[in-house]
Structure formats: structure tokens, C-alpha cells
Amino acid sequence: MEAARLTAPEALRPPRRRKALSFGAPDPDTFWGDVLRERPLGGRVRAVRRIASMLVFTAFAIPVQALLLALPGKADRVFGRFYFRTLAWLMGMRVQVVGQQVPPPSVLFVSNHSSWLDIIVLGGVLEACFVAKSEVSEWPVVRTIAYLGRTVFVSRNRTRTKGEAGLIRDRLAAGDGIILFPEGTTSDGGRVLPFRSAFLSVADSARVVQPVSVVFDRLGGLPACRRDRPLFAWYGDMDIATHFWRLARRGKTRATVVLHAPLDPAAYPDRKALTAACAEVVAEGCAMLRQNRPAMPLAPLGSRAAS
């Protein structure tokens, strides 16, 4: 075959490049578009199964808890912990507990807060009731569960703060355990926000204060990294339904709860010093879990230095 002859200008001209191949995004409305997206159809089936089972179990638990509240004894508290532990199991979440809970009565638990998931995790671990913002009392279904869990609702109105603090003191004086989130809001899961000392103004009515660290540290059996934090954390203007749907589609997860050494409120000169000691311990415990180091209960830095 005779080779094509090129003139000098043609030989020096760069060859024509063919148009590069481009792969468009799959159409999400088609079957293959759904399969090729980040989460396949199997994740949706898992989410529907989990949501349906949680709703059915909650529908069963509400009348049972309402009956137990009307009866004497602590059966309602036992069933409340069973309810939250079952919810975590239905969600595919394993809860690991490190340390020992201070037994009742009158224990004030102080924890970091990154998500509504903290309620399910701590509700199944601690024998205590929550303090929640008044807006929660307006949420459907959640409102009913909160009332049956003997939740104390507080507002952000300073004129009502004194009366609401008195209600928490009355609960502590009656021997109840109380769970506080002194950050005042949820974080992004990658840090612990500064604790507000106003939340610990009721600590003088508690027998002891126990700091608690909560971190969601496993996703699909692997250590959760920085990019996984937003999957668990619920903050800003996130929609709770969308957040729950994304999480329900994932594989099994794990939350680790570290129960630190208890603090005596009388050993601190004021609530600001007590708040700083609690914040230090909780933040260090969370950093330890986020870095996948072996979890262990911690004492305040001053106590460790003295020992």
C-alpha cells in the first residue's frame, strides 16, 4: 500500500484530536440511574424496613409506658431504657459503654451533644431523664415520647429560667437523675462546643456530677473518619427527616459512651469552675474516641496531677 504523502506544512501541523469521551450523570429517575448513584436500592429497602419497625415498636411502647407511669415503682424507668435500647438495635446501632454509671439518687449527667441520636444512645444507657428545649414539646410523636420519658422542658426566655431551674432542682431532690447538654445546641461532631455555666446552676442540688462523652465512631464496621461526622451530626438547619433517612440507609453503626469519674459539686468554688472541669473531661474523652484511641474514663486534670 502506498503511504500517504504529506507536504512540509502538513507534516508540521499537529494531528487532530478526537473528541474526548464524556460520561454524563445517570438519570436518577431510571432504574440504572438509581443503581449507579451513591447508595443503591438495597439501602432504601433497609431504610424502609428500619423505619417501619421503629414506628410499629413505638406504637406498642407508648400505651405500655403510659400504663407504667400510672403504677407505683420504677417499672416505667426500666421500660424506658429498654425502649431506647431497642430503638438503637432496630436502627442497626451498637452501643459500647466504657466506665461505670454512678448509681442513683440525685445524679447530674453532663454530656456533649451532636445529634438527636444522643437521646436514643444515652436514654438506653443512663437511668435518668432529659432536659430539652421547649420547641421539642411541639414536635409530633417526639413530643409524646418525651412526655412519657418525664422530660423537663426549658425555654430560652430568661424570665422563666428561674422557675424551670427550680423544677430541675425538685427532680434532683426527689432522687431523679438528670441529663444535661451544656453546649446549648448541637455541634458538627468534630469538636465539643464551649459549655455554658448557666446550665450547671442546678448542680448544687445534685449529689454528684458525672461527665459523659458520646462519639459515633464506627460506620459499616470501620472507624468513622472526619467525612463521616455529618452523617451522624444534626446541626444548623438540617431537616430531621432527611437526616434520619440518610442514616437509616447505611450499614451497621456504633456509638461509644464513656462514663467519666464523678465530680463533687461542693469541691468547686463556683459553677464556672465546675463547668470548666466538666468541659475539659468531656472534650478530652471525645478527642480520644475520634482519634480511635483506647477509650477509658477520665478524671479532671487537677485530680490526675494530684494523684
Task: List the topology elements.
Elements: H1 8-12, H2 31-36, H3 41-70, H4 75-90, E1 93-98, E2 107-111, H5 117-125, E3 129-133, H6 142-148, E4 152-154, H7 158-173, E5 178-180, E6 208-219, E7 222-223, H8 229-232, H9 240-248, E8 253-259, H10 271-290, H11 301-306
What is shown here, in short?
With 307 residues, the protein is of the alpha/beta class.
The CATH topology name reads Glycerol-3-phosphate (1)-acyltransferase
Shape: globular
Q: Roughly what percent helix?
A: 40-55%
Number of domains: 1
Number of helices: 11
Q: Please report the total strand number as a whole number.
A: 8
Overall pLDDT = 85
Task: Provide the low-confidence segments as ranges.
Answer: 31-36
CATH class: Alpha Beta
Strand/helix succession:
HHHHEEHEHEHEEEHHEHH
CATH architecture: 3-Layer(aba) Sandwich
Broad structural category: alpha/beta
Ends apart, CA distance between termini: 93 Å
Biggest sheet layout: 8 strands, mixed
Strand content: 5-15%
Rg (C-alpha, Å): 26 Å
Describe this structure in words.
Strand 3 (129-133), helix 6 and strand 4 (152-154) form a beta-alpha-beta unit. It is globular and about 100 Å long. With 307 residues, the protein is an alpha/beta fold. Residues 31-36 have low confidence and may be disordered. Helices cover 42% and strands 14% of the residues. The protein has one domain: Glycerol-3-phosphate (1)-acyltransferase (3-Layer(aba) Sandwich), CATH 3.40.1130. Strands 1, 2, 3, 4, 5, 6, 7 and 8 form an 8-stranded mixed sheet that branches. The protein contains 11 helices and 8 strands. The longest helix has 30 residues, at 41-70.
